[in-house]
Amino acid sequence: FHDRNVRSKASYKLPPGPSPLPIIGNLHQLGKNPHHFSAILAKIHGPIMTLKLGQLTTIVISSAEMAKIVLQNYDQFLSNRTVPEAVRVHNHHVHSIAFMPITPLWRFLRKICNNQLFANKTIGATQDLRRKKVQELLGKIHQSSQIGEATLFVAGTDTITSTLEWAMTELLSNPNTMKRAKRELEETIGKGNQVEESDIARLPYLEAILKETFRLPPSVPFLIPRKADTDVEINGYTIPKGSQLLINVYAIGRDSNVWKNDTNLFSPERFLGLETHVKGRHFELIPFGAGRRICPALSYAMKILFLMLGSLLNCFDWKLENDSKAEDIDKKQEFGISLRKAKPLRAIPIKVNN
Ligand code: HEM
């Protein structure tokens, strides 16, 4: 199987793509939101596409089907990282799990993540700490609510806060979805109560909201770049050794072959009754990546998101500042390590009484 598909000879055909200019390649075409523009380019050139980012040959994957082939069948040949200069100058490729190559040290650190840091037992043992932190957050928002001050959702490069900001943005833009989420919380855990970890399994609509937030404005739009260790042949095209591999989950979330109904509409209902989860097996929804490099903090991050979003919704009503209307919300994105809102969301909390 592998002998037929993995070649080391240089007689290969690159996946199609736009013509590059000398030196800069296609960099000039990508602009400030490369995930967005490369999704448009993929509509022309296909779900496996070549871009030249400067001198770096980059293969961009833009469909769930192709992501499955790459991250499931060929993961072992595509698990190293290309290292951006900004990361290299800080030596992160030597010390940080996310950028170091696959080495015994990486395996050792991943083992510590799985068996210690993010093991169920450890996460379970720190439940009180998270409860206290969410309580502190609710206390601060309560203070704002007493003086009618807006809560500013500022997400830096942090994936959890940017996901939270996008979820609140979508809920404030979709009042019926907000209402349904609040109703589920009220009926399940009682109005005004903080969400407990034991409540999570009983909140399927809140879970659907998180999934829909990962689908439409994913917090890590290209995952973390990977590098081909060897030539890998897929559907008659070659991902050449040394090239960079980007998985455009932003494009995958908008793939109309998979997301058939109102692809661009924020509609958590689409997930109700579906098995689709975010653990790297359903390639139409891989906000945490998949394969060997999948985010080791996945379950922990999901827990925190449930606790924070659920508690914010169940303890407060929310309205936009200056009586702005839902349709006025500016949803422009700003590309970075995580995808954040170009203009931070400002919303006014109103404490609900339980
Ligand atoms: C909503 C929250 C989060 C999202 C969406 C997210 C997403 C991701 C993605 C897409 C990757 C790359 C996967 C791949 O290459 O296939 C990744 C890797 C990683 N994430 Fe997360 N992440 C989140 C939260 C966290 C948190 C809270 C931590 C740590 C406390 C964390 C630690 C890591 C590490 C260490 C890696 C590198 C793994 C490796 O390269 O072997 N993540 N994450």
UniProtKB/TrEMBL annotation:
<keyword id="KW-0560">Oxidoreductase</keyword>
<dbReference type="GO" id="GO:0004497">
    <property type="term" value="F:monooxygenase activity"/>
</dbReference>
<dbReference type="GO" id="GO:0005506">
    <property type="term" value="F:iron ion binding"/>
</dbReference>
<dbReference type="InterPro" id="IPR036396">
    <property type="entry name" value="Cyt_P450_sf"/>
</dbReference>
<dbReference type="Pfam" id="PF00067">
    <property type="entry name" value="p450"/>
</dbReference>
<dbReference type="InterPro" id="IPR001128">
    <property type="entry name" value="Cyt_P450"/>
</dbReference>
<comment type="similarity">
    <text>Belongs to the cytochrome P450 family.</text>
</comment>
<feature type="binding site" description="axial binding residue">
    <location>
        <position position="295"/>
    </location>
    <ligand>
        <name>heme</name>
    </ligand>
</feature>
<keyword id="KW-0732">Signal</keyword>
<dbReference type="GO" id="GO:0016705">
    <property type="term" value="F:oxidoreductase activity, acting on paired donors, with incorporation or reduction of molecular oxygen"/>
</dbReference>
<dbReference type="InterPro" id="IPR017972">
    <property type="entry name" value="Cyt_P450_CS"/>
</dbReference>
<keyword id="KW-0479">Metal-binding</keyword>
<keyword id="KW-0408">Iron</keyword>
<protein>
    <recommendedName>
        <fullName>Cytochrome P450</fullName>
    </recommendedName>
</protein>
<keyword id="KW-0349">Heme</keyword>
<dbReference type="GO" id="GO:0020037">
    <property type="term" value="F:heme binding"/>
</dbReference>
<dbReference type="InterPro" id="IPR002403">
    <property type="entry name" value="Cyt_P450_E_grp-IV"/>
</dbReference>
<keyword id="KW-0503">Monooxygenase</keyword>
